[in-house]
Specification:
The chain is α/β, with parallel strands linked by helices. It is built from nine helices and eleven strands. It has a single domain, classed as Rossmann fold (3-Layer(aba) Sandwich), CATH 3.40.50.200. The strands form three sheets. A seven-stranded parallel beta sheet has the order 2-3-1-4-5-6-9, with helices on both faces. Helix 3 packs parallel to helix 6 and helix 4 packs parallel to helix 5. The two termini are about 25 Å apart.
Amino acid sequence: MQVKNLNRTCALVKAGYAWQRQIFGKGIGIAILDTGIYPHPDFGNRIVAFEDFVYHKRGVYDDCGHGTHIAGIAAGDGSMSKGYYCGIASESSIIACKVLDYSGNGSVDNVVRGLDWVVRNKERYNIRIVNISVGTMSKEEEEEECELVKAVNSVWDEGLVVCVAAGNNGPDPYSITTPGISRKVITVGSSDDDEAVEVSGRTISDYSGRGPSYSCIIKPDLVAPGSNIHSCQAKKQGMRGRSGYVRKSGTSMSTPMVSGAVALLLSKYPQLTNGEVKRRLCESATELGWPSSRQGFGMLNIENLFKTV
């Protein structure tokens, strides 16, 4: 695939290092638990499974657009824009689980059901990665005992890499959303949240959730670009602008960059365990000179990620 412009998204995380070596995440399944997915041209025939836990419909759809945008960052191939807007792992398989409704809201029960389904079907679709770009705040006393944290921990224990958004409730301490507070999963914040951006109808900055958790766990684990990210647009939103793409911001956008990077890594080194993947992500991250409560171990760096293996 020829890429005219890596986009600020990919240039910042140096995905080109893997692309130059013909590493595109081929065959690695990324399960995206979100609002669904629109069959955008950038996904080709790589949407290998779709399950709707909200309305129980059979056809592939996204009545919000959030899930389609997330999928494009992780796995879009940029074909509609002739490579201008290209996701990280452009040959990975997409498994879309609709657990959120048309407004991007959902219940814990639906997320848990989606996670259970992913575990049951991980071998069928070679699911190695779970992307959860959603979160909620939990009470301090319930933090590590809440249902969502237990659910993602269980998925991690099944050997899957779980990437979760840090949430957009920063910059106060202890503002990481659930299930990002889990000590097991990979929690992703935004590396460029100093920009004033629109998130959920509000103009905000310094939005990325800050750690630590109430259990004194360093969070986030790392950060990646999350502000003004162009990616695939669901048809519902009207395919205007740059022909099928839209700009969104938030740690929701940062998270699939890490999921895509993991897909690249596992397609080259499929024997790696989720613990080894997490360690390599943290060890290879670029130190930004910020407190660990804001950056974790630093910013995602795909070039360094491959050099640590």
